[in-house]
Amino acid sequence: MTESGRRLVAGGLEVYVRERGDGPPLLLLNGIGGNAEMWGALEDRLATAARTIVFDAPGSGRSQTPRWPLRIPGYADITSALLDELGYDRVDVLGFSFGGLVAQELAHRHAERVRRLALVSTSCGWGSKPGTLASLALISMPFRYHSRAIYERTNHFLSPSDHALVDRLPQLAEARLKHPPPLLGYGYQLGAGMLWTSLPWLHTVVAPTLVLAGGLDQLVPPANGLQLARLLPRARLQVLADEGHLFVLDPESESQAMLEEFFTAAEPEAAPVWATGRSVDDDETVEAAFAAATGCAQPHGVLSDAYRRSVLAARDA
Q1: What local confidence, expressed as pLDDT, does residue 158 receive?
Q2: Region 277-304: what's the mean pLDDT?
Q3: Which of 97, 161, 198, 255 is flagged as catalytic?
Q4: Is 60 annotated in the active site?
Q5: What domains can you pick out in the chain, each with its CATH number?
């Protein structure tokens, strides 16, 4: 049963937050415009072994929309302030999609607060391989979350695997439509994600990190998971071959067991998902994956790749 949440002030903004279960604290950071109800079965499962912390990010759900746009570091600082309000010094962190950007920034700016990190369906921002034009168009339509009719009529922009998932689990749409994001708040999050990158400093993140990517993800192509696993100093990658972008919300996805294993193991290396995960140890593997990725939106793809090459060239100089 879902426990009721509460509103706290963090970083000068009123934030809706909910805690469940007993065990090591585990913070879940959602995708763009997402709300706490969307975690569903994953929150239920993880709360049996951890003290889960879910919240609506500023500008989404039941949380306050900031007066001025935030950048990703601002979202990370508010998240850190929320942990202060809740009384947690150190937590495990799961970041999904947009939440993965905030999770990386939190692990960078507040490294002492992050014990373990899981990055799901996410990327380094600028320097990553962008998704298809249709997938990028879909996330630029926040008004679809304010109208069931528009939501249903635009689902064809989803990848086939995600479309099938949404059709099979109508509760995902119900959770999304129950607390739609304010249009201004959604725009702030979208703008923050578009202008952000972790590429220059990702190699400094010290938390052991599990990277999960969907092999059929059209919004965040799986090549980005390879790049994250290559740049993070202590990481393992699992690519779920037949999954799209939303797989972590699917109670039938093996990703939920993987995350439970990773966060509950005495040490990361003791988790089967870590032992069977891929260690990406060479740049050539990433280059080959980027070259093989097709359908990426242009000119964004060309500009992002040029930025990636310039940052990596400076690193190797």
Answers
A1: 86
A2: 93
A3: 97
A4: no
A5: 6-126+181-292 (3.40.50.1820)
